[in-house]
Write a structure and sequence with these properties.
28% of the residues lie in helices and 19% in strands. It is an alpha+beta fold and 381 residues long. The longest helix has 15 residues. Strands 7, 8, 9, 10, 13, 14, 15, 16 and 17 form a nine-stranded mixed sheet that branches. The protein contains twelve helices and 17 strands.
Amino acid sequence: MRSSGRNSNRNYRGAGNSRDDRQKRAGRPRPEERRYDAGTGGGPDRPGRPKGQGQGQGQGQAPRGASQGGPRTGAKSGAGTGGRPGARTGGPGAGGKGGARSGDRGRSAPSRPREYEAQIEERNRARHAKPALKLPKTFGEAEGERLQKVLARAGMGSRRACEELIDQRRVEVNGEIVTEQGLRVDPEKDEIKVDGLTIATQSYLFFALNKPAGVVSSMEDPEGRQCLGDYVTNRETRLFHVGRLDTETEGLILLTNHGELAHRLTHPRYGVQKTYLAAIQGPIPRDLGKRLKDGVKLEDGYARADHFKVVENTGKNYLVEVTLHEGRKHIVRRMLAETGFPVDKLVRTRFGPIALGDQKSGWLRRLTNTEVGMLMREVDL
């Protein structure tokens, strides 16, 4: 009998020594199991229990507000096992651990709110984000642009190369040499120079055109003739020409949107020199150059040449070079005609420090930063 008692305790662990106690404990579903009970049959002492169905099926109607899913799988499994009290596949009324597990699996898990998902996403981003820099508090945004940025935009090289120019003390702002990095400037107001030459900022454009013969020196022509504006139609910024050339005169003419520079380049006060090549018929006297330099009387006053020389002579054909700083209408043609040598062809080859060089007729090119600086230094800008 003792061994039978031991075996009984082994088979029903956790139950009492009395069979009635075991039966009574098996018929009491736990509170959480009773909550999810979805069975239709009664308890062991209730009517309506189908014959042959074990206690693994649900114990009566589910309480109001309880879930109606989940335990049905456990109820069917419990019916198939003969309704043993301790069957693991039993429903909520089985009293074993398996019934509770089956009920938990059948229950649908509630979804997490969107606010909680957003908080998780923010934490994940903050984990991999770089720490924010602690900048000193200021009373306003810094004005202007960094000097190296302005230099790079003006074509002086990369920002690193422009920083090297500053380290080498080759840059000056408003007459003072810059010795430290990070200086902020206003390109519209501050005067910036590199190696003594003023740089051209992005807001100003400078072009050199080799004007062909027959082109009118104006940006628009009411008569529909070919003019300078036909060569810059694709430019977003309005340009205007610096000075004029006769319709039949070829050569260098400057185009820009820098009004002050254009005004000074053409003003007699600054005396910017222009050089021309003129084709005339000889022979010419030796004192022709002296007469031009001393001054030739014209209908609107005297006109004087700054320089004169013979460039080429082939028989009676002479190619002479005339340099002067005045800019009156047809002045070179009138001076040579007054001395008895009318001009067959006239080409302007230089405007101040800017030379025409081998630029082809009708070609437009942008002036380099060095050329712009030389022009500005010529007129004290």
